[in-house]
Amino acid sequence: MWIREMLSSVAIVLLIGLLLFGVSGVWPPMVAVESGSMEPNMEVGDLVFVTEPGRLAPDAAQNEVGVVTHAIGERVDYRTFGSYGSVVIYRPPGRTASPIIHRAMFRVEAGENWYDRADDQYHSAADCGELTHCPAPHDGFITLGDNNGQYDQANGLAAPVKADWVTGVARVRVPYLGYVRLIATGQAELRDVVATTGPIATTRASVRHVDAKDGFDDGSGARDTEAVVSGGDVAAVVAG
């Protein structure tokens, strides 16, 4: 009897995963937030639904990956996860750690001096010559963790994010469900869930837009948001 119940449960999980894959176009279609670089808009233990680049793209997107930058989002009032613009999942070439999930702030072109377009609260450079990856070595997005003090490109985490580095776009988050995956992979303990779902639990919405992982200390006390992707699972792990 228990074998039949177990197989039934596995079949249900796989069916749900396949349905989500049909909508999202990526596998796994969900990621679990592991860290805090996207707080308060994405928090540890959130489960995030993602779609492949270009799928479900809003009208405001002006690129092949269907991403609305913060700069454009501010003009057209397009918001996700508590702020303007899209949150993307990307992996720079040569990166062996998990993919990064941060907000796309604005787009630059190859050779562009983007110093004047940058918000000086997210870098400490006096001019383009002091700003990492300025002039831009290629076309791409300037990205930022909502809880970080520097652009990813200013702290050396990544060059401007090319379109083909983007593996997904974050769409929706569900608080706490990501802890199932985090506990299973040893990245969280039950006591972490109890601590998180205590008095502050009532302040969080039941379903909100999401973002992902962290592991790079930029000196601000926050890290880069990374996505730990495991192809054999319905849900992967990301750090927010």
Write the layout of secondary structure elements.
Elements: H1 2-24, E1 30-33, E2 47-51, H2 70-76, E3 79-80, E4 83-84, E5 87-90, E6 100-108, E7 140-144, E8 166-174, H3 179-184, H4 190-196, E9 227-228, E10 235-238
Parallel strand pairs: 1-10
Antiparallel strand pairs: 1-2, 2-8, 3-4, 5-6, 5-8, 6-7, 9-10
Q: How would you describe this structure to a colleague?
A:
The termini are far apart. The chain is globular. Strands 7-6-5-8-2-1-10-9 form an 8-stranded mixed beta sheet, with helices on both faces. It has a two-stranded antiparallel sheet with strand order 3-4. 18% of the residues lie in helices and 19% in strands. A hairpin with a 2-residue loop joins strand 3 and strand 4 (83-84). Mean pLDDT is 80; it is low at 200-222 and 227-232. It has 240 residues and is α+β, with helices and mostly antiparallel strands. It has helices at 2-24, 70-76, 179-184, 190-196; strands at residues 30-33, 47-51, 79-80, 83-84, 87-90, 100-108, 140-144, 166-174, 227-228, 235-238. The protein has one domain (25-238).
Keywords:
two-stranded antiparallel sheet; 18% helix; alpha+beta; single chain; 240 residues; 4 helices; 8-stranded mixed beta sheet; 19% strand
In short:
By secondary structure, the protein is α+β, with helices and mostly antiparallel strands.
Please summarize the sheet with the most strands: 8 strands, mixed
Instruction: Name the shape in a single word.
Output: globular
Contiguous runs where pLDDT drops below 50 for at least 5 residues: 200-222, 227-232
Number of domains: 1
Portion of residues in beta strands equals 15-25%
For the termini, the CA-CA separation is 41 Å
